[in-house]
């Protein structure tokens, strides 16, 4: 026989051995194996979910629970109620040696449960929670995985509304820190300890979108608390939010600036246009007051002064000052008119007196000489003024009305003071914002 025949007979013999082995060892049903293992480790009288797991290496020490989470979304941050809403996938992992099982040579990775009451669970709660709910569509969004060496992984999707105390002194140039706190409700640190998972305990979804905030960073920390009943393990994650200023620049700061500038238009209107100047001043004042009340309606009543309060207060003062300026102008104008009327009446009386007395020169009569000089002065033709003097005479002088001078001074003073206020305001609050950062 040739070597080729020997090779053919070897292949046929190996195929026969494989077929015989498959005939003697039918295909393993792993789902059936999982059922048997679950019945074996969680059967009645074999596992008590009321008893907490032992410590490391079966000691009586505290059970250690590693925590991590995945932030899916942050739907809103409410300034008025000082709260924020978040949706997350929350995970806990601990070791329960009572749940060890045979992994069939590494073929069975883990067992899956959907009923949390079948095994012992940590009594974790969110200490700053206001409202919360689980997600049950289409099925409850929860699972428990039991690994061969007894490790238990619990994962659940939850939505929470959490309290977030805010400091609004720099609003809307502020940054806020909102915390998510988790603690044990009944087990003290002698029995249960929460730890952040090593590596990356908090993950955030990519392209997280918030309407008026930006999530700058987040920090994990511990916040164990001591009470009369003992010390309890606590974890927290601090979320640092920066408020988006562009929205407030368009909606608040720019309209307020425009209202203040519009109120200055009255300085350029004629003094006699009383209806126009009054209606302009009252309209801008009411609009500014409405704007201020609308801003305060969206914020909680706090005992301190906010940055936006300083801005709206000063803008309201400028608008009110423009209205008061017209009242002063009107008063000065009326006073000048009354003085002119009095002077006019006095001159008429003097003229009538002069007309009634004869202008006869008596030698040595000083009174007659004085009257004659006055008449000669009135009879002299007026001197012609140069172009320069004629233009200068139009400017407000002491001989001109006070009301005109008040308007001219206001045209310069109001914009300069408002520009100075802007310089001080933005320098102060932007510098304080950098300090807080």
Largest sheet composition: 8 strands, mixed
Into which percent range does the helicity of residues fall?
Answer: 40-55%
Tally of DSSP helical segments: 8
Average pLDDT taken over every residue: 83
User: What is the ordering of alpha helices and beta strands?
Assistant: HHEEEEEEEEEEEEEEHHHHHH
Total strand segments: 14
User: β content, as a range?
Assistant: 15-25%
Low-confidence segments: 18-25
Structural description of this entry:
The protein has 437 residues and is of the alpha+beta class. Helix content is 42%, strand content 24%. It contains eight helices and 14 strands. The chain has helices at residues 3-24, 30-42, 245-263, 274-297, 307-356, 366-379, 387-392, 402-436; strands at residues 63-78, 83-95, 111-113, 124-126, 129-134, 142-146, 151-163, 175-184, 192-196, 202-204, 213-222, 225-227, 230-232, 234-243. The strands form three sheets. Strands 1, 2, 3, 5, 6, 7, 9 and 10 form an eight-stranded mixed β-sheet that branches. It has a four-stranded antiparallel β-sheet with strand order 4-8-14-11, with no helix packed on it. Helix 3 (245-263) runs antiparallel to helix 4, helix 3 packs parallel to helix 5 and helix 5 runs antiparallel to helix 8. The relative contact order is 0.09.
């Amino acid at each position: 026989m040739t070597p080729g025949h020997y090779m053919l007979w070897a292949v046929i013999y190996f195929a026969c051995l494989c077929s015989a082995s498959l005939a003697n060892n039918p295909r393993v049903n792993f789902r059936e194996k999982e059922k048997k293992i679950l019945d074996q480790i969680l059967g009645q009288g074999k596992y008590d979910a009321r008893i907490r797991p032992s410590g490391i290496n079966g000691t009586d020490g505290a059970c250690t629970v590693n925590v991590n989470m995945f932030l899916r979304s942050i739907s809103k941050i409410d300034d008025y109620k000082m709260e924020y809403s978040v949706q997350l996938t929350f995970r806990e992992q601990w070791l329960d040696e009572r749940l060890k099982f045979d992994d069939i040579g590494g073929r069975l990775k883990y067992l899956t449960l959907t009923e949390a009451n079948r095994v012992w669970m940590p009594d974790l709660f969110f200490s700053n929670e206001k409202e919360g709910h689980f997600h049950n569509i289409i099925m409850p969004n929860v699972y428990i995985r039991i690994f061969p060496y007894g490790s238990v992984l619990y994962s659940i999707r939850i939505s929470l509304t959490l309290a977030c105390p805010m400091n609004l002194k720099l609003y809307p140039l502020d940054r806020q820190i909102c915390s998510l706190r988790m603690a044990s409700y009944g087990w003290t640190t002698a029995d249960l300890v929460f730890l952040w998972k090593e590596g990356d305990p908090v993950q955030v979804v990519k392209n997280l979108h918030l309407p008026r905030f930006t999530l700058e960073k987040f920090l994990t920390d511990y916040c164990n608390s001591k009470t009369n009943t003992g010390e309890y393990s606590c974890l927290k994650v601090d979320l640092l939010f920066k408020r988006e200023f562009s929205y407030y620049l368009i909606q608040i700061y720019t309209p307020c600036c425009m209202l203040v500038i519009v109120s200055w238009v009255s300085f350029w209107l004629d003094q006699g246009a009383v209806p126009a100047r009054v209606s302009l001043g009252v309209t801008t004042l009411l609009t500014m007051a409405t704007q201020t009340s609308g801003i305060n309606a969206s914020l909680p009543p706090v005992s301190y002064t906010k940055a936006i309060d300083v801005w709206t207060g000063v803008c309201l003062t400028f608008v009110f000052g423009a209205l008061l300026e017209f009242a002063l102008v009107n008063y000065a104008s009326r006073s000048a008119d009354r003085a002119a009327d009095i002077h006019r009446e006095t001159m008429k009386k003097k003229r009538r007196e002069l007309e009634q007395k004869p202008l006869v020169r008596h030698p040595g009569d000083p009174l007659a000489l004085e009257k004659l000089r006055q008449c000669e002065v009135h009879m002299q033709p007026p001197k012609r003024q140069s172009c320069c003097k004629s233009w200068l005479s139009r400017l407000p002088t002491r001989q001109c009305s006070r009301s005109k001078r008040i308007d001219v001074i206001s045209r310069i003073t109001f914009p300069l003071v408002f520009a100075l206020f802007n310089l001080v305001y933005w320098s102060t609050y932007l510098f304080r914002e950098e300090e807080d950062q």
